[in-house]
Design goal:
The chain is an all-beta fold and 102 residues long. It has no helices and nine strands. It has a single domain, classed as Immunoglobulins (Immunoglobulin-like, Sandwich), CATH 2.60.40.10. Helix content is 0%, strand content 47%.
């Protein structure tokens, strides 16, 4: 799930691991995407209130592709993303948009 807070110069996006994925045995969860150059260890999610989440400051008026990496080997999408695009490896990437809503 995504929660967005639009500010004058940026968008604060909180990425929350979908509940459906919480059934798995989780040791680590990382947010991987355009905003961190697809670095698999740069943006770990923290366990909070029975969920895993992280807040990232993103530039306004852009779209960013991302996925969740669980336990270092399981790639998952956020099915509440703004949209999806095909990735070059197979399947889709989630997309978050930082265009302010009118």
């Amino acid at each position: 799930m995504l929660k967005k807070k639009f500010l004058k110069t940026k968008c604060k996006v909180t990425f929350i691991l979908p509940e459906a994925l919480m059934d798995e045995t989780i040791n680590t969860v990382h947010l991987v995407g355009d905003f961190n150059e697809w670095d698999e260890s740069a943006t770990p999610l923290e366990e909070k209130s029975k969920s895993y989440q992280v807040t990232v400051d993103l530039d306004l008026n852009k779209e960013y592709q991302f996925r969740y990496l669980i336990n270092g080997d399981q790639w998952h999408n956020d099915w509440h993303a703004d949209r999806y695009v095909a990735n070059p490896f197979s399947g889709d990437n989630s997309v978050v948009s930082t265009y302010p809503e009118d």
